[in-house]
C-alpha cells in the first residue's frame, strides 16, 4: 500500500489510535479504565473488553461484537464510537461510507457532552472526532472541498488536545493519542522533529504495548531499524498473539533489507487471517509476495 496510507496499513493499527487495555495492570476502583494506574476513569468493563479485542489481541470480528454490546449500554463512552468508525474504515479504506462520518460525529458529540464532567477525556475525544471527520472529508469530498475542511478540522484537533494538555500534560491516554498523531506527522512532513513525540510515547504513554507499537512504526519510518526492532519485539512480548504486530515485524525486516527474515513473520500473521479485515489480509499477502519475489531474485543472481 502506498506511503500515503502510512500509519494505517503500515502501522498495523488504524486511523484512530484511541483506546487500549492491560488487565491486571489496572487499579480496582474502575477496572474498565485501560490507561491509568492513578485517577482511573469510569470506563465500563464491556468497553475495556472491546478495546482489548481491538488493540491488544488484534481480533476484529471479536472487537466488532464487543463494540456493539458496549454500545447498548446506558452510558456510551465516546471511545466506542471512535472504535466503531475505525472498524468501518478497515472494511474498505478507499471507499468510506457515510456511516464512517456518522460515527465520527457521534464521537465528537458524545465527547462534547462529557467535557463538563471530565474536561480531560472530553477534549481528547472532541479532538478524535474532529480528526475522523477531517479524514472523511479528505477521502470523500475531493481536493477542492476536502483539503480546506480537513485543515480546519486539524486546527480543532490541536486546539482540543491543547485544552486536554492544560488539564494534565502527563496523562497516559492523552499521550498515547497525541504521541501517535505527532509522530505520524513528524515522519511524513518535511522539517519536522520526531524527538518530542518519541519522548512522549517513551515516557508518558500507556499501555506499554501500544506505546512500543507506535515507536516501532516511527523508528521504522525514520530508518532507525535497530530501535524499531527492539520496540516491536517488546510489543510482541506483551501481545504475543496479535497478528498485526507480527506483520509489523515483517515490515521492519523488509525495510531494513532483510527480506528473507520477513517471510516467516508474514506467514505467522497470515495464519491468523480470520482475526483480520479482508483488505488487510490482502495487503499482507501482497507484501509477502513482493518480499518472496525479491528473495527468489537475489538467490537466482547469486547462483
Automatic annotation (TrEMBL):
<dbReference type="InterPro" id="IPR011990">
    <property type="entry name" value="TPR-like_helical_dom_sf"/>
</dbReference>
<dbReference type="Pfam" id="PF13432">
    <property type="entry name" value="TPR_16"/>
</dbReference>
<keyword id="KW-0802">TPR repeat</keyword>
<dbReference type="InterPro" id="IPR048173">
    <property type="entry name" value="Sll0314-like"/>
</dbReference>
<feature type="repeat" description="TPR">
    <location>
        <begin position="209"/>
        <end position="242"/>
    </location>
</feature>
<dbReference type="InterPro" id="IPR019734">
    <property type="entry name" value="TPR_rpt"/>
</dbReference>
<protein>
    <submittedName>
        <fullName>Tetratricopeptide repeat protein</fullName>
    </submittedName>
</protein>
Amino acid at each position: 500500500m502506498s506511503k500515503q496510507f502510512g500509519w494505517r496499513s503500515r502501522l498495523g493499527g488504524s486511523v484512530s489510535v484511541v483506546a487500549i487495555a492491560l488487565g491486571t495492570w489496572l487499579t480496582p476502583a474502575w477496572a474498565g479504565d485501560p490507561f491509568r494506574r492513578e485517577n482511573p476513569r469510569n470506563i465500563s468493563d464491556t468497553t475495556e473488553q472491546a478495546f482489548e479485542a481491538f488493540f491488544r489481541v488484534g481480533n476484529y470480528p471479536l472487537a466488532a461484537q464487543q463494540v456493539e454490546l458496549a454500545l447498548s449500554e446506558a452510558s456510551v463512552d465516546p471511545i466506542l464510537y471512535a472504535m466503531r468508525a475505525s472498524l468501518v474504515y478497515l472494511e474498505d479504506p478507499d471507499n468510506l461510507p457515510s456511516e464512517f462520518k456518522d460515527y465520527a460525529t457521534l464521537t465528537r458529540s458524545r465527547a462534547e457532552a462529557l467535557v463538563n464532567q471530565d474536561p480531560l477525556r472530553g477534549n481528547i475525544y472532541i479532538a478524535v472526532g474532529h480528526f475522523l471527520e477531517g479524514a472523511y472529508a479528505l477521502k470523500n469530498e475531493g481536493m477542492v472541498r476536502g483539503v480546506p475542511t480537513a485543515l480546519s478540522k486539524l486546527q480543532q484537533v490541536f486546539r482540543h488536545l491543547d485544552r486536554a494538555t492544560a488539564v494534565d500534560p502527563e496523562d497516559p491516554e492523552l499521550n498515547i493519542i497525541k504521541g501517535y498523531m505527532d509522530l505520524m506527522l513528524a515522519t511524513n512532513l518535511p522539517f519536522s522533529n520526531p524527538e518530542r513525540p518519541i519522548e512522549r510515547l517513551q515516557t508518558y504513554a500507556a499501555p506499554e504495548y501500544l506505546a512500543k507499537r507506535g515507536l516501532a512504526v516511527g523508528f521504522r519510518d525514520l530508518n532507525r531499524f535497530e530501535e524499531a526492532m527492539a520496540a516491536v519485539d517488546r510489543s510482541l512480548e506483551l501481545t504475543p498473539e496479535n497478528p498485526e504486530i507480527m506483520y509489523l515485524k515483517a515490515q521492519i525486516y523488509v525495510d531494513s533489507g532483510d527480506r528473507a527474515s520477513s517471510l516467516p513473520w508474514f506467514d505467522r500473521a497470515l495464519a491468523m487471517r480470520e482475526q483480520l479485515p479482508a483488505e488487510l489480509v490482502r495487503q499482507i499477502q501482497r507484501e509477502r509476495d513482493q518480499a518472496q519475489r525479491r528473495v527468489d531474485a537475489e538467490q537466482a543472481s547469486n547462483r
